[in-house]
User: Fold these one by one.
Assistant:
Number 1:
Amino acid sequence: MTGSGTDGPMSETDDRTTGTAAGPPALTVVRPGALTTVQDLGRPGHAHLGVGRSGALDRPAHELANRLAGNPAGHATLETTVDGCAVRAGTAVTAVVTGAPCPVRVDGRPVAWGAAVRVPAGAVLDVGRAAGGLRSYVAFAGGLAVPPVLGSRSRDLLSGLGPEPLAAGAVLPLGAPCGPPAHADAVPWAGPPVGGLVLPVVLGPRDDWFTPAALRTLARGAFRVAAASNRIGLRTEGPALERATDGELPSEGMVLGAVQVPPDGCPVVFLADHPTTGGYPVVGVVPEAELAAAAQAVPGTPVRFVPVRG
Amino acid sequence: MTAHPVGAPPRRPLRVGPHALLVEVAGGEEAQALHAELLRRRAAGTLPAVTEIVPAARTVLLDGLADPQALAADIVRWDVPPLAASGGTPVVLPVRYDGADLAEVAALWGVAADEVAGIHSGLEFRVAFCGFAPGFGYLTGLPAHLHVPRRATPRTAVPAGAVGLAGPYTGVYPRSSPGGWQLIGRTDAVLWDAAREPAALLAPGTRVRFEVSA
């Protein structure tokens, strides 16, 4: 790891940037894909400074990839978007691809999705286009060892914290493996929400800013995932929710899963890179466990909200 | 602290999903006082475990609670002391008062352009809350007659260190970004440095003064 321990008494003997001829374990990006970012479990605890949580959008998929690679849940993985990515391994490394199912190849040869695969030194791991869903997760034994920012290696696309999204030629250092890869007889995959995304919404804190008709629209309306969705929020298109009040809401704290309704009336479900404060009313909150499905919903997917009274 | 009508609850807890609570109070002073009380209770170990305490304009959000409803029932009964008028040493930010909206602000204030620096640097501010970008603080302390509207058209790029005004707030852009605040000057102070401890120069509750620099 860089960025830590360089001024300690052990720094000379602990310096992993010198040593073997092959250099420290690292990956080189061959094909970055549409948007591939480094993600871990994020940086909770800094929202009061304007720093959001960030972290893997499909957290169960991220954690599964780590587990199968023999890593703790908090090790950093790659989160791809739609068309995967490809990296060259500097030294032999174990890798696991989970999340959106996709073809996985090592030097062109098909290998398993959802299982530990060996990538020899110099070989290219290619994570292909998602066959369903949006985001695949790629864990490497030892994890990605880019320098952490405020305790996390996650790229927050809103605040700009964390490592830049992958670019061709970029080098990603790897940590030391800390355990053998795990074996799973069956890899759970809920599947992309093809038939439609059903999101329970705990009403509040600002459901009283909307008319009774708007709350009925929320419950019965045919919404779809909008193409403008990203790591900040799942945007929807569909019937507009009508406000009961024209007032302006002073900025207030926002949580993961908050369903914010901007002036156009189309609900936005806040995902990991959401702003920490906002001035549009939040009609309700989607519980965190339901957001992994939202992270895999492709644009056009029908969305149904199921309001729940607290 | 504004007196509230007898019988009216001093704070209203609102449900925010299964693990959070938004506590609404009468105004900015009350929000800052509640935030200070929450930090005191957390330091004393008498607050239930919580991941985030996020003050804002007239609310404080508590996220990561095991039982938000239990805290909601408790928090309405708290006796929250009003915000202490002073205490501690303020952070002092040197400012060159040469912002692009200086003349506009002077006109809104009804003073000459060269009087803005003296007025702004003569006040003491407090970070009410942060948001918009890492380390961007919303500073209160402007008397009501100095509140100015945002620009009708936001700028696509405001430089890092720009000192601005909007509504009841003054603030400093931690980095170059789009922005709609009226700009009165610029500071070289580094508001945000992720490699620094603490990364944010201004955190909620921090007292701030601006100083005229050449």
Number 2:
Amino acid sequence: MKLSRRRRQRVLRVAGYVVFGLAILAVVAAADWGRLSDAFFRSDVARSMFPEAITVALRNTILYTLLAFVFGLTLGLVLALMRLSSILPYRWFATAYIELFRGLPALLVLFMVGYGVPLAFPDREIPGGVYGSVTVGLGLTAAAYMAETLRAGIQAVPKGQLEAARTLGMSHPRAMVSIVLPQAFRIVIPPLTNEIILLTKDTSLVYVLGVTSTTIELTKFAGDALNTRVNPTPLVVAGLLYLVITLPLSQLVRGLERRAAKER
Amino acid sequence: MSTIEIAGLHKSFGRLEVLRGIDLAVEPGEVVCVIGPSGSGKSTLLRCVNLLEEPTAGTIRVAGVEVTDPDCDIDAVRRGIGMVFQQFNLFGHLTVRENVTIAQRRVLKRSRAEATRIATENLARVGLAEKADAYPAQLSGGQQQRVAIARALAMDPQLMLFDEPTSALDPELVGEVLAVMRGLAAEGMTMLVVTHEMAFAREVASRVVFMDGGVIVEQGPPATVFGNPAEERTREFLHRVLEPTRVSATEIGAPES
């Protein structure tokens, strides 16, 4: 029987669904469900982690992320403006900073801030204890990435916007603040949210600073529970809690992008 | 005192000399239309008046203030000069009303109530009072350009600069923008207009300036420049612009068919 071209395409399409369904079925059938649920979904182990998993670990993860993000965004904005400055040494400094901190592992910077600097200056300390060290340690690296993102955003605002603002008598700084930066921020919301998501995950490095039961974050918390219960369920719980942070963020971006699309 | 006095104006971009000695005065209440081929320096001349381009040499005075003086407070001078761009340049993140109020509030320090009142007046003047809450992207090109005119007018300028205000518009939207401009001219606004709309220039301008190659080739009342141009270059330009279907093959160097 000779099939028409269109019918042949339809048959191929249906075959695609069937193959996918069969593959899922095969995996489900082959899996040892009893052992899987004993290892990863032990409800008593999971239950023993609460409420601290949320009131301490999740809370600290969010707090570390926000602190580093605010620090990084502020410093990143300054660096972005320096990079676009007409004053040459400012451009040099910003470029050097960005190249340096983009090239270093976040963990190394965290070590430097947490141990290197206190060793060098034993009589001084970063205010805020672990919170302060995390803010600076993760924020320094984040600032380098965000500076580049913000610079691209500022440059993506058409030159005519600045000209129109200047023509209305606004000074250059006023035009930047009222006209260019608000539009640049709208452009960079998606990449900045990516940056928050990356930071959220980088907070798992904080344990190297030596956290206590009150400053512990999700990954270290799950690792400790894994050790005491000798069962990997805590890792699944921590994983789900990370998603509790990151999934709403993606949702938020989608909403903001829709709004921005209406205004542009 | 002339509203604009330009003397010996030169402007180069790198090695390219775009303006090669311009002398021009615009008197209060005059509507001066600048015409000429692309690349003749018309837009650059306009952009030098409010210092969007820094002149290489020469002096420019606006209402007696020398804007080319290094000590000149250019932001203060620009407050008195409205400018309308080919690409509208409305602020995309602000509503129409906010577009018209932001400079009033931030630059002229007017109260919110006063700025809003003046915005509403000027939007009504361009026939767009009911669009105050829309965003620029929701408007047609012609509507956006009328908002841009209202935005400039809200600053109470004594001079309006128009840089090819209808060149980016669909043909059926040109009329609404020209109508607003004609109304402004009738109210006595001093206007310097770079345009390709010859019909507008002929009807509304008090004087027409023809530029080519970075110099003013000739100027005069529209009836003279359009009806009886003195220069051959003017005649050729007008022939090509006004009768594009009658440009013959030999004129452009192609063999006669």
